Amino acid sequence: MSHICFIYHIVWRTYRSEMTIVEENEKELYAYIFGICKNKNCHLYRINSMPDHVHICVSIHPSISVSEFMKVLKGETSKWMKDNKDMFPNFVGWGEGYAAFTYSDKDKPNIINYIKNQKIHHKRETFPQEYRHWLLTEGQDPESDTLLRDK
Known about the structure:
The protein has 151 residues and is of the alpha+beta class. 37% of the residues lie in helices and 18% in strands. Strands 2-3-1-4 form a four-stranded antiparallel sheet, with helices on both faces.
């Protein structure tokens, strides 16, 4: 059998970056996402969120593409959150796209720690500021990126 090890740091946001992920109920959302990952033979190492976006550190099984994984993840969580309006009363859906960054296994502890400390981190920096910084660090042009835009 082939050995494949991709560690992804994936982030996606709520529609229009609205503050619709209720902190008191985020653990239920995390458990639901964990179940999706498990059902897809993926390994979720860490998850955390802010009211307007979600971060995960995950290895995705080689039988599924990142785009297919995210299509399923966003689709199923959107339906689940809408079905649980009592927990997420203002959630209308996810924004367009997602950002996925790949890392080696040796980077995993740093990514996990980064995701673990999101709530502290975002006291100093907004998600758009954070994302712009990532893009620049990765040599990408923030002006041409569309993650933070809605149609």
